[in-house]
Amino acid sequence: MTDTPEPSQHEPNPQASLHADAAKRRIEQAVHDNDANLRAVAREIHADPELSFREHRAQRRLIAPLEAAGFAVETGLAGLETSFRAVWSGGAGAADGPTVALLAEYDALPGVGHACGHNLIGTSAVGAALALKEACPDLPGRLIVLGTPAEEEGGGKIIMSEAGIFDGVDAVMMCHPQEKTMVLRGALACVDATFTFRGRQAHASSSPERGISALDAMINAFVAINSIRQFVKDDVRIHGIITKGGDAPNVVPELCEAVFILRAADVDGLHTVREKVYRAVRAAAEGVGAEVGIAEGLIYAERNNNRELARLFRANLENMGLEVSDPPKSGGVGSSDIGNVSRLTAAIHPYIRLGDAGTHTPAFAELAGGEAGMVYLNRAARALALTAYDLFADSSALAAVRGEFEAWKQSEQEKENA
Q1: What ranges in 48-196 are assigned the alpha helix state H?
Q2: 314-364, pLDDT tens digit by residue?
Q3: First and final CA of the chain: distance in angstroms?
């Protein structure tokens, strides 16, 4: 398969196209009419960053306009206090129509705040839902905004997936700010691991022979991990930091800690990387007589982009006058817990250009709170709403999206059974 979507397999009816064009103009106008309110929400969240699982104020800011518009809202899904679900059922036949979910993220990064633009991601999902309800109140189906906390650290979508929150959802979408506009960029499988090294404390000068250095064990672990980098595939990424390195230079460190993130092209490759890294870490600890505990986070799966859904999104972006770029052939990708969702239902995670800064940097955070971020917000809300409209209004488009996902699911089952 190539990274460029193929031409659509169905030709629209001319009369239906005229109706769709009028509806889409109303949707875009609804986004424009609400632009000032959306900007205010996005800027408030940007100015008040909250870390994973603690996004209480962001949650309230996103819920408020949905409740005011008549969405049925519930919070605390899957045991996550800062999650939410806002549901609107359309006109006649809604119960038999599709269910489309727009995913909102709103957690920030330590130290650099909204340097991944989650203030824009969450607000654009809300803006799209509000516009679609206002412009097309009789659409047959259910529109959901799912507030998914802790994407940066903790895997909120994974927890929600395992709790069945995505059951019965026909398609999910979100939109991420980036340096380029892309609809089919992938993502790596990943897992975070905390290595806790335990030695024996002693005076580093008068009685060093009584000590076992947890710090030496940890340094040896970094060296051992570096020594295996040439023996992994090109898609593998291994990066870590020291979070505790001892308390005083004249005391043999008894407790040290490091946190790593391990990535690979897919979950199967990630298992291989984990085995190699964990073996190296255990050997490094044993070599100095220390012990090490390994605590894993949730495994983020690789992304299964639905190409039919991406085709719809791309067409709407191009109709808005945006140029869509091809994704990188190698490298240039991170990880996200939407990968786990994409194994349960049709999903896309497209990107719209914000500016030239890279994510997770102070420069990107500045863009996300400035005028460039507000322009992105308007574009993302329109693209999400227009693509959701396509699924509600065009049964053949929905059938193509669902057909692709079911075919992928069948192929995955066959691989497991082989």
Answers
A1: 56-68, 118-135, 156-162
A2: 999 999 999 999 998 877 889 999 999 999 999 999 999 999 999 999 999
A3: 22
Q: Which two tokens stand for residue 125?
A: 């999902």
For the stretch 379-416, what's the b/e string if a residue is b when 16 or more beta carbons lie within 10 angstroms of its beta carbon?
bbbbbbbbbbbbbbbbeebbebbbebbeebeeeeeeee
Amino acid letter, residue 19:
H
Q: Which domains are assigned to the chain?
A: 14-187+302-417 (3.40.630.10), 189-296 (3.30.70.360)
CA distance 402 to 396: 10
Residue 3's pLDDT is what?
Answer: 42
Residue type, 332: G
| Entry pTM | 0.90
Q: Please, what sign has the CA dihedral across residues 104, 235, 299, 52?
A: negative
Q: Report the mean per-residue pLDDT for the chain.
A: 94
CA 280 to chain centre: 30
Give 88-119 as a DSSP string: EE-STTGGGS-EEEEEE----BTTTBSTT-HH
Q: Which two tokens stand for residue 96?
A: 């038999």
Asked if pLDDT for residue 13 goes beyond 70, the answer is: no
Separation of alpha carbons 357 and 359, rounded Å: 7
Rounded-to-integer distance, Cα 9 and Cα 237, Å: 38
**240-255 as b/e: b if 16+ CB within 10 A:** beeebebeeeeebbbb
* Alpha carbons 338 and 359: distance in angstroms, whole number: 17
Residue 128 near residue 382, CB atoms below 8 Å: yes
Sequence-distant (6+) residues with CB within 8 A of 386 are 24, 27, 28, 316, 319
In this structure, the chain runs to a length of 418
Which residue, 186, 278, 197, 201, is CA-closest to 235? Answer: 186
Tens of pLDDT along 355-388?
Answer: 999 999 999 999 999 999 999 999 999 999 999 9
Q: How far apart are CA 332 and CA 188, in angstroms?
A: 10
